[in-house]
Design brief:
The protein contains 6 helices and 28 strands. It is α+β, with helices and mostly antiparallel strands. It has a domain at 529-575.
Length: 575
Amino acid sequence: MEEKRNTTEVARVSRKIVSIAAGEAHTLALSGDGRVYSWGRGFFGRLGTGSEADRLSPARIYFYAPDDEREDKVKIVGIAAGAYHSLALADDGSIWGWGYNIYGQIGVAGENYSSPRLLEGLLESQSASSSTQDPGGKPLKVSSVSAGGMMSLAVDNGGAMWMWGNCPNSSQSQPSEEDSSLASGVAPVPVCDFHGRTVFKVACGNDHVVALVSAEEKSKGSGRVCYSWGGNSHGQLGLGDRENRLHPEIIEAFNIESPWEIYDIACGASHTAVLAKRKKPGNTSENGCWTFGLGDNGQLGHGTTQALLTPELIKGLPQNLVSVDCGLYHSCVVSSSGEVWSWGMEKGLGLCPDSRFTGAEAGDALTPLMIPFGGLHGNRFSEPLQVACGAAHTVLVADAGYKLWSWGRGRSGVLGNGRLVDCYAPTAVLWPLVSDDFKEEESNNASLEDHNKEKIPEDKTEETDKRLSAAMEEIKLLQSKLSMMERYAGILHGAVFGKPLLDTELPVSLRTSGAFDIAKEWESMLEESDERKLIRLQMFYRDMLTGVKDKLMKKRIQEVVKEYLNSSAKGTTEN
């Protein structure tokens, strides 16, 4: 009984997601047992699966060969995703990287790697730290990793910070290029500006970095301030101007005298978002989300498309925010009560222009919108933990880590739901792995047989592998058929009703009777439409009818010409 209980507990830990990270078109997930999974676009090897093939559902990443005994000893405790590269931090402080490496952002020489590569020698340079031990007397080792654009960052347990790849290099006296603050390099470079102080949290965008740092040296106080540096063409540093910075500068809105204390940071391509709480709250906890930088698509959430050079508090959000992240042109926050709010491109869904729906429902969200869910708790998710935004998709960890949801652009399998279609409402990521469910069932059956029999047949493992392989092939086939049918249905629904088909808005006739009464649905839609929508539909179908008439006319002309040529040829032959 004790063995079964231990097995169940191990299974629960392996199914719990403790962290997620999203790149341009891929997602990483870290499970409670220290394993890393990835899905989405595989180009440049960013998934770490050993190939550049796309993955439509989570696939495990192996740091050694699956049958290598060293693989079982690797336990990952942190993950990070840049635009096209990925990082993983092991419990011994070692860093692994894979994917796009033209700027050296995975920390090893060479171009691109489709399998994890170990970054060595990061802590050999002690120029950012005065000793080889942390304040507690333990040996220094990396405690967290971050990534953004084409750069990578690491912080050790002594509070020192390193950067590599295409990043703002504060050791430069001048920018590497005209009007630029970036420099490329494989070797990690210490950020000496924070010598003697502690870096608590850091985030980076395409060319800028924001860090939460102790206000004084480690032995003199515990106050925290926010610094930024790097590219600043859109005001993403929050310093009140558009000038690039080679060295970190304090964002005055969050200096040591500010009534607000930052507890989470996120950077988009050229905008920044922070969560902060009052240092001396009243009877109720008070917090909020501040944004600054590029605002062209409403990604700042202030009701305009104007850029902001200094932080501004977003109005209308709940007071219990636990996580924030920024995509390419959208932003998202999660509250402890289960609400998910998003704003920016394509109504906060993150969908890029080449895939946007062009009907009346299209458009960017200039202020926060609550993401529709329609689950057991209404529009609230159960026990949400973290949100991650890619260029055009969003992923949420909910149910205390046991469920993943995603929405946005679905091409290349970015949403992890086994499909290739865009989703305008949350869809379940295929987690836990189907293979894990299958193996657990087999394990339970084997345990029962072991209880009733003295010996299990020797070919049991081989039989299980065959059944698993057959089941996985059938699932892949069904997923492919489902994806194709959904795309076809979406195209038809958009053409007929002028809006995308949402999972949460299936036609009433289909939900109640299992049959789709298109005439009834069409009549219902017309009744509910306002004048603006009716005019748009009129124009849409007028254009469609014009196209059909033009095509019929062209075909008729072709037939007349063909008849004329045939009669002319016949007359010539007779003469």
